[in-house]
Amino acid sequence: QLPEQVTIKEVGPRDGLQNEAKRIETEDKVAWIDHLSESGLSYIEISSFVHPKWIPQLADAKEVAEAIKRHPEITYAALVPNMKGLERAIDTEIDEVSIFMSSSETHNKKNINKSIEDTYPVLKEVVEGAKQADKSVRGYVSTVFGCPYDGHVPVEQVLHVCDRLFEMGIDELSLGDTIGVADPNQVDRVLEEVNKRFSFDRIAMHFHNTRGMALANVLVSLQHGVTIFDGALGGLGGCPYAKGASGNLATDDLVHMLNQMGIDTGIRQDKLLVAASYIQSKLDKTLPSHQMQVTNRS
Ligand code: HMG
Ligand code: MG
């Protein structure tokens, strides 16, 4: 029995752009997000308040957050690594704060310059600060299905990080296959363990399509009752601090599959593809999603 309804969280303007070498103009990012807001999406992660030297592409997070046309029914979120980032985010009246860390030691160190243990107090302060400012908080755990540096990550280690984040008071947790190594059997095994501890109404899956398995992994997740998925339009994306990371699961491919299966997303594929064509025209490449390949041919 598959869910009848699924929520898709668009992370393209953040996860998609953070790995793009070509600098996109602020006004083009804003226009892209405004297109996305017209598509029926209920959630858009618009940028990231990390250190601008670490992610130069997203150095204009404030300008983007202040210029987009906000729709009251859409949650506009941004990544926040620490208190400095939270101050910057709150200044722009972002709706939701996304904290993030990794379940493997080396990726955590390369990505946010701290050990896992030293990351908890930093994030705890961010969650408390965000709650005081009346913001909801989403947590990401990266390298859930494998780490580019440490290899296999034991599920117990992943669950421990999830526990610690939920204890801080986060509202939702997104499980990241950062480098796209998960296979359907592994997703099945991990979700069985996750389900013993957490309710699926607060768990999202964040797949990358590096090895072409993202949609297969979505299907297994649906069979477990997961109803929240992250996607990046056109299949843009990847973590610059994960060697070998590539595009996210493409939102347009996901919407297509769910539409075909009669699962409601509330999203209009035609409008999504308009948004995808827009950002594609600002990049020096064609977008890798299947839907965009079909669109580009026709
Ligand atoms: P650090 O250098 O250890 O920071 O970086 P620090 O706390 O030692 O501070 C050093 C200086 O940076 C200070 O300035 C701070 O004020 C400043 P100084 O006093 O020397 O003049 N600073 C900041 N400035 C602006 N904004 C800030 C900020 N923080 C400190 N937020 C830090 C630590 C976490 C900041 C850095 O490592 C960083 O920005 N990392 C971000 C890396 C990143 O964005 N990675 C990609 C996102 S994660 C991902 O893609 C995975 C995901 O998609 C899920 C999945 O697929 O698995 C979410
Ligand atoms: Mg990601």
From TrEMBL:
GO molecular function terms attached to this record: hydroxymethylglutaryl-CoA lyase activity; metal ion binding
InterPro entries cross-referenced by the UniProt entry: Aldolase_TIM, HMGL, PYR_CT
Keyword Lyase: yes
Pfam families found in the cross-reference section: HMGL-like
GO biological process, one term: ketone body biosynthetic process
Domain of life: Bacteria
Keywords on record: Lyase, Metal-binding
Domain (Pyruvate carboxyltransferase): residue spans on this chain: 6-273
NCBIfam families: PRK05692.1 (NF004283)
Membership in a protein family: Belongs to the HMG-CoA lyase family.
Name of the protein: Hydroxymethylglutaryl-CoA lyase
